[in-house]
Design brief:
The protein contains 11 helices and 5 strands; from the N terminus they run ααααααββαααβββαα. The chain is mainly alpha-helical and 267 residues long. It folds into 2 domains: 155 residues, dinb family like domain (Four Helix Bundle (Hemerythrin (Met), subunit A), Up-down Bundle); 82 residues, SCP2 sterol-binding domain (Nonspecific Lipid-transfer Protein, Chain A, 2-Layer Sandwich). It is globular.
Length: 267
């Protein structure tokens, strides 16, 4: 199986894992508050439904996607980003919302079959290679699924699919500074993680200036801004810490992530 096929399959598996969590929850639980300020469980699924559809459009019709991007930016200015992207989904019943997300992700999976290893897809920042593009959708599904699990008080077991997210977290180190208008500090950082299955995953040179080490799940939680570095067992030196306090594995404007528990969250 090619690496691209693996990502395609793992994206679908991650979506199904989240579907299993929300498929049988009550209407009250659909409207439970999540760690994302102002967002309910339904909003998290609405967000995924919106951008899964956007991803399908980006693959099949780049020209239409560019129009959609302009409309999104204009809508964000006049209505606010959440109102523009979530209003349609907020008007749905929970059953309608779940059905819409299922259809949008099915259509995305179908469109993704047409991508090859050399394909590039336009997105909200720079264009992305096919594997990185689908990995980003997997990362979004997992990250928003984490918010949902936290809100519902359930645990979604960690899987080897986290390798895709961890790799994305590593390669977006430079982006984490660029999105803030900062210069990346001199020096290389190696990442050495323990996988859910007990294997060791590494990225970067052995003679790097600093190293981040610890559980892969915790690293993924930090680079997707679902946990503060100080609320994990990750080990690193000054250079790695400087990065992880800014880590942002997703597109869009700069985001600060959660505060450390029991502190004022100063970054």
């Amino acid at each position: 199986m090619s690496e691209l096929d693996q990502v395609r399959n793992d994206l679908v598996a991650e979506q199904r894992a989240l579907d299993a969590v929300v498929a049988s929850i009550t209407d009250v639980q659909w409207h439970s508050a999540t760690p994302s300020p102002g967002w309910t469980v339904a909003d998290q699924i609405g967000h995924l439904a919106y951008f899964d559809e956007a991803a399908r459009t980006a693959i099949l019709s780049p020209e239409r996607f560019r129009t959609n991007v302009r409309e999104l930016f204009e809508g964000a200015v006049h209505k606010g980003l959440d109102e523009f992207t979530l209003a349609t989904f907020r008007a749905m019943t929970s059953a309608q919302l779940l059905a819409t997300w299922r259809e949008n992700r099915r259509a995305l999976a179908e469109a993704a079959q047409g991508l090859g290893e050399e394909s590039r897809v336009e997105w909200y920042g720079p264009s992305m290679g096919a594997r990185s593009f689908l990995t980003a959708r997997l990362m979004e599904t997992w990250a928003h699924g984490t918010d949902i699990a936290d809100a519902l008080g359930v645990v979604i077991p960690a899987t080897e699919r986290l390798r895709h997210i961890a790799q994305l977290g590593f390669i977006t180190r430079k982006w984490s500074y660029q999105v803030r208008g900062e210069e990346i500090p001199d020096g290389r950082v190696r990442v050495r993680l323990s996988s859910p299955g007990g294997a060791e995953w590494t990225w970067g040179d052995e003679d790097a200036d600093d190293e981040v080490s610890g559980p892969a799940q915790e690293f993924c939680l930090v680079v997707t801004q679902r946990r503060h570095l100080d609320d994990t067992t990750l080990q690193t030196g000054e250079l790695g810490r400087h990065w992880l306090l800014r880590a942002q594995a997703f597109a869009g404007g700069p985001s600060q992530g959660p505060r450390a528990k029991g502190t004022d969250g100063t970054r």
